[in-house]
Write a structure and sequence with these properties.
The radius of gyration is 17 Å and the shape is globular. Strands 3-2-1-4-5-7-6 form a seven-stranded mixed β-sheet, with helices on both faces. It has seven helices and seven strands. The chain has a single domain, classed as Rossmann fold (3-Layer(aba) Sandwich). By secondary structure, it is of the alpha/beta class. It binds S-adenosylmethionine. S-adenosylmethionine binds next to α4 and β2.
Length: 203
């Protein structure tokens, strides 16, 4: 298939998608809004969390979900791509792998109750390469948890099911009391995407 034709097919499927339609009609920044909504409805992660870090936050629909549904949260959003401002969200334009950006985060956050990560590497389609990239992201996120997550805190992290799944789950089991793997209805069925809902960060 030519690139033009495959882009046209993607656009056709995308605009037919009921979650895309719902996002557009509700004025949300992206269909990702519904993923966090489903995760929160099932695991009730946001209500009891006062300080929240949203990693890979742009264009901003997860932060938008939190601000629209909950009052008085201390919300810090981080992304290497600039995010249009959302009132009540402190945005840091940075890369989670960059130590300077991590220092910026330390200036404004002490400890968080909840760390969210919707970060995905650029997918190459080469399984080993993609899984290695996801593993690197996992390592950065566990280091962020070690710096910022409170004991008993919660981590929600996107992952792509593949060869490093078992290893990552084993490592998460060492860090948290309870690990759940969840695929929201709003996550495209043809995507390998899943979310780890990790509850009870260990001392
Ligand atoms: C799927 S999008 C997130 C969508 C977002 N949750 C929302 O609801 O609008 C993934 C984001 O991860 C960001 N990202 C990827 N690698 C990153 C890194 N190393 N540091 C910071 N952000 C990163 C990308 O720039 C992209 O905006």
């Amino acid at each position: 298939m030519t690139k033009k034709k495959s882009t046209k097919n993607w656009l056709k499927k995308h605009t037919k998608d009921r979650y895309v339609k719902m996002s557009i009609s509700s004025g949300f920044r992206s269909r990702a809004f519904h993923k966090l909504q489903e995760i929160d409805e099932k695991y009730k992660i946001v209500k009891s969390s006062n300080t929240i870090i949203d990693l890979g936050a742009s264009p901003g629909s997860w932060s938008e979900y939190i601000i629209r549904n909950y009052k008085s949260k201390n919300l810090i959003a981080v992304d290497k791509i600039v995010m249009e401002p959302i009132q009540g969200v402190h945005f840091i334009n940075g890369d989670i792998n960059n130590s300077g950006d991590r220092e910026e985060m330390k200036k404004i956050i002490n400890k968080a109750d909840l760390v969210l990560s919707d970060i995905a590497p650029n997918i190459t389609g080469i399984e080993d390469v993609d899984q290695a990239h996801f593993f690197e992201i996992f390592e950065s996120i566990s280091s962020i948890c070690s710096d910022f997550l409170k004991v008993k805190g919660i981590l929600v992290m996107k992952f792509f099911n593949g060869s490093s799944y078992d290893l990552v789950k084993k490592r998460l089991n060492m860090l948290f009391n309870e690990i759940n793997t969840y695929k929201p209805d709003s996550s495209r069925s043809r995507s390998n995407e899943v979310f780890f809902i990790c509850i009870g960060y260990k001392d």
